[in-house]
Amino acid sequence: MDIGTISIILLLGLMLLLAAGVPLGFASAVLAVLVLVMKFEPQLLLNPLAFGDGILTGRPGSGPLNILAQKIYGLLTDYVLISIPLFIFMAALLERSGIAKDMYSSLNIWLNRTRGGIAIVTSIMAVIMAAMSGIIGGEVVLLGLIALPQMLRLGYNQNLAVGTICASGSLGTMIPPSIVLIIYGLITETSIKALFTASFLPGFMLASFIITYIIIRTQLKPEDAPLPEPIAGEPQGVEKFKLFSAFVAILTAGFSTILFLRALFFELSGQNAANTADPFAFGTADWLPWFGGVTIASLVIMFVVLGRERVIKGWSMGKGLVPPVVVIGVVMGSIYGGITGITEAAAMGAFAVLFMAIIRGEASANLVWESLMRTLKSTGTIIWVTIGAAALAGAYTIAGGPAYVADFIVASELPTMGVLLAMMLILLFMGAFMDWVGIVLLIIPVFLPIVQKLPIEEIGIFGQLEPRYVPIWFGVVFCMNMQVSFLSPPFGPAAFYLKSVAPPHISLTDIFRGFLPFIGIQLCALAVLLIWPPIVTLLLN
Q1: DSSP H/E element including 81
Q2: Distances in Å between the alpha carbon of 212 and those of 373, 468, 494?
Q3: Are the C-beta atoms of 267 and 291 separated by less than 8 Å?
């Protein structure tokens, strides 16, 4: 059977199975077998009981089935894949301990007298949660439990509350350490560290778009975000700013002291010696005066300018933010400091969260057990979908599908930006019906080679990419596209995550209605990446 007919049958079959409620992993595995049969032994469809000496049935250990098995085995035995359950475990501990709730309370203290402050706090908390774990579903559920009741109680517009929680809660797709980027890096053999670095600015750009929209909307329509009643004795205006400055000074002093001691250790231990190793970043002797100076300046601000009482009160108001800052520092600092790889950083982050839960008196056997069960279920789902999707992608590749799609797109004679826009539309369409794991395994191996063959000077409108950055740029673009898919009806997963914890009177229709302006914001961010591709390389150069 020709590959064109197989492609049509595959697309229709996938849509029918997903529409019927068949799990993606199972549907993909069934279709993988069907693709191989249609390509290499179509007679099995006509007479399934007639097993002969065909390429699929007669020579075990050889042919397409062996190639397919090797492909799946190679993917599932990649060391980096271990980071996924570790990040999930870390996110589960954060959800079930009081760390996330204390972080929300501290952020709320600083912004509760700001118009739309609760929504802004929700977005900032989502960014911090994304930078800690890279898990999406848990963020939406957690924010739905913590922030949604408070916003509804204060009289916030329901659409604004729902959209803020789901759009912000899905930022884990973009902001490193992103599970989506990890899988993309494994499939395309692209540096995951480079992908993390490249996605940093686009991820925070999207977060800033969301926060800016909240500020503008609440200023234009104050009734959408009423201010809470002031609390007696609560600091206001300049005094609150001074307390916040005291808290920031404490964090700055602590961070600079740690960097000072780190640089001092490297120097005294001889690890920066020219004959032993390359100097550590920010860990050489010439950095010691800078770190020491920052520490001294922070102490002067704390105890001379602001005063001891403000320092103590500022710390009590903001201390809930310290554990998340520590976790982010452990995970991202160990990666970019050259201390560990992605997997080891995930393990260190999970240990850091567990250690802090123990210190806070929140750790228990039940907490660890529930977190492990959540990790097992989530990881099992991801792995099962990965196996099925990898099997289907491998079977389609063996059958010659990527070459067929590439030739079809090239034959269309669309301009470069037309090809990219067509790809974006396909990804947006598939994202409305399919899980991101299946999309990255099925579509990216087809699309990425096409993108790499496009004229590099015609990609984007402003600026120009270097050829070596094309896979990284397309990975970030893909993640931004998947950001939209988490909100896209009819199967936007963020809606179902929120519905599981939302009040009964909020229907799925209401939730999807609240998504509309935020989908527009995500599409604007996607447009920025397509128009100005070099944004992903600003931190790579």
Answers
A1: none
A2: 38, 33, 21
A3: no
Instruction: Spell out the residues 6+ positions from residue 457 whose beta carbon is closer than 8 angstroms to its own.
Output: 464
pLDDT at 71: 73
CA distances from 180 to 45, 83, 113 (A): 37, 12, 36
- Going by C-alpha positions, the residue among 421, 414, 409, 452 that lies closest to residue 531 is 421
How far apart (Å, rounded) are the C-alpha atoms in residues 19 and 524? 30
Query: For residues 97, 98, 100 and 105, what is the CA-based torsion angle, rounded to 10 degrees?
Result: 170
What is the per-residue pLDDT across 430-459, written as a single tens digit (0 to 9) for each? 877 777 777 887 788 888 888 888 888 889
- Cα–Cα distances in angstroms (integers) from residue 166 to residues 105, 175, 511, 519, in the given order: 19, 15, 9, 10
* Tokens read off for 536: 């992903």
Cis peptide, bond prior to residue 324, ω within 30 of zero: no
The C-alpha angle with vertex 197 and arms to 423 and 92, in degrees rounded to 5, equals 90
Q: Which SS3 state, helix, strand or coil, does residue 168 take?
A: helix
Model confidence pLDDT, tens digit, residues 144-179: 888 888 888 888 999 999 999 988 888 888 888 888
In whole angstroms, give the CA distance from residue 273 to residue 435: 50
Q: Which range (97-111, 181-195, 458-472, 527-541) has the least confidence?
A: 97-111
Q: Is 156 within 8 Å of 148 (Cβ atoms)?
A: no
- Which string of DSSP letters, residue by residue, matches 469-535? GHHHHHHHHHHHHHHHHTT-TTT-HHHHHHHTTS-TTS-HHHHHHHHHHHHHHHHHHHHHHHH-GGG
3-state helix, strand, coil in the chain (%, to 5): 75, 0, 25
Q: What's the first-to-final CA gap in the chain, in angstroms?
A: 48
Domain boundaries, the chain: 1-79+368-399
Two structure tokens written together for 179: 């599970």
CA distance 91 to 97: 10
